[in-house]
Design a protein that fits this description.
By secondary structure, the chain is an alpha/beta fold. It folds into three domains: about 5-70; about 80-185; about 205-395. It has helices at about 10-20, 80-90, 95, 135, 140-150, 210-220, 235-240, 255-265, 280-290, 315-330, 345-360; strands spanning about 5-10, 25, 40-45, 50-60, 65-70, 105-110, 115-120, 125-130, 155-160, 175, 185, 190-195, 225-230, 245-250, 275-280, 295-300, 305, 310-315, 330-340, 365-370, 390-395. The strands form five sheets. The chain has a seven-stranded mixed sheet, with helices on both faces. A five-stranded mixed sheet has the order 1-3-4-5-2. A hairpin with a 2-residue loop joins strand 4 and strand 5 (about 65-70). Helix 10 (about 315-330) crosses helix 11.
Length: about 400
């Protein structure tokens, strides 16, 4: 039997929970020391003992757990999960009916009513991401519920909850049939090779779909494109298909080169006409300045935190300097696609980073477009922090 306890919420947090805030934090609780076993069902009550919400205990970098229901009598059972999953799938009908896009998010954690869990769809296969030991204790009921509400070719999972918040190496296969990898998925008509069984990443970040499409449809034609922190080159592929004169992809990871070649190849693009460099991005900036290279379009989408031999990069601290490096090698009237997935600050602060960089460089700019998460990454209005993606198309004027 799953343990169930009642915890007392302080007055400040009470108002937040009443407004629909879904995250349970240590600071909100008067008696957090009662929490000993992840996966425990938690009834939240005010100091007078009045019920506020029901959730579960599962530690992740954001907090101590998530609210699942405001109904005192609702059991957190397989039936609850089936209803929650069905409602989420219903919201994505238009995605399932679109043959040009066969990879998207079908369940976005607290945005769909169950924080700590996301589920992505890849051409008939489902990939579950577990973000805490607590949510993983619901694994059997959630997988059974998913099996009852979808017709899956196969189900895979990623466990992302060791003590440092890192992915736990595993086989990752759960149920159904094993996929043959690479699995080719489509995104707005572009092919991408993905792997559901090969480490923490699949080969594509689904949250950037709208941004890649904008580059392909509006910004790439005839342009020279630099894609920094390029990973598997997805932005470069979108640009090439959009008619870019040439793309340059730069990433420090040795695997990025073969992965990028693969992404070009599954779209019938001759990768030898593109530049693919395994190199520290900061060293590349120095090299580009020395060679007086300039680009029409520069994509800046660094990880929130990265470390190389010479540099430690943290978005919250270092983005203005990164932006200055990009400005120096962008053509006049060129465009910088400034992106971050850091949840530790909002769009206003991010725009401040851009402002600071241009001011220090003595250059002028205008923001042409801005993007946040696409519609399949559902976000609750009561939890703005869930909308972590911030992307600005910045033109040098």
């Amino acid at each position: 039997m799953r343990q169930e306890i009642t915890l007392t919420v302080n007055d400040k947090a009470k108002a937040e929970f009443q407004r629909g805030f879904p995250l349970i934090t240590k600071e909100a609780l008067e008696d957090a020391d009662k929490l000993t076993q992840e996966g425990t069902i938690v009834n939240l009550a005010d100091k007078q003992g009045k019920f506020l919400a029901k959730g579960y205990y599962g530690k992740q970098n954001k907090g101590y757990g998530w609210v699942l229901t405001r109904n005192k009598d609702e059991a957190i059972s397989q039936g609850f999960m089936e209803r929650t999953l069905s409602a989420a799938l219903d919201q994505r009908k238009s995605f399932f009916n679109n043959p040009d896009t066969t990879a998207f998010r079908v369940f976005n954690g607290e945005g769909d009513g169950f924080g700590g869990l996301t589920i992505d769809y890849y051409a008939g296969f489902y990939l579950l991401n577990w973000y805490s030991e607590g949510v993983y204790t619901f694994r059997d009921e959630i997988i059974a519920a998913l099996g009852n509400v979808v017709d899956a070719k196969g189900i895979y999972q990623k466990k992302r909850f060791d003590t440092k918040g890192q992915y736990i190496e595993d086989d990752d296969f759960v149920a159904g049939e094993r996929g043959e990898f690479p699995l080719i998925v489509k995104e707005n008509g572009v092919n991408f090779a993905v792997y559901l069984n090969d480490g923490a990443m699949t080969g594509i970040f689904l949250d950037q779909r709208d941004v890649r499409n904008a580059i392909k449809e509006k910004y790439a034609k005839g342009k020279t494109v630099l894609n920094t922190f390029s990973y598997t080159g997805a932005f470069s592929v979108a640009a090439a298909i959009g008619g870019a004169a040439k793309t340059t992809s730069v990433d420090l990871a040795k695997r990025s080169s073969a992965k990028t070649i693969e992404q070009f190849s599954v779209n019938g693009i001759d990768y030898e006409h593109q530049d693919i460099l395994v190199m520290d991005v900061f060293n590349y900036f120095k090299y580009a300045k020395r060679k007086e290279l300039k680009f029409d379009l520069v994509v800046l989408d660094p990880p929130s935190f990265a470390r190389s031999k010479k540099y430690t990069f943290s978005t919250a601290k270092d983005y203005p300097n990164l932006m200055k490096e990009a400005i120096a090698i962008t053509e006049q009237k060129g465009m910088i696609v400034a992106s971050t997935n850091s949840a530790s600050f909002g769009m206003k602060k991010f725009k401040g980073f851009i402002e600071k960089a241009f001011k220090e460089e003595g250059k002028k700019y205008r923001i042409v477009e801005e993007y946040t998460l696409p519609s399949d990454f559902r976000v609750r209005k009561e939890f703005k922090e869930g909308d972590y993606l911030k992307v600005l198309f910045v033109e040098l004027v």
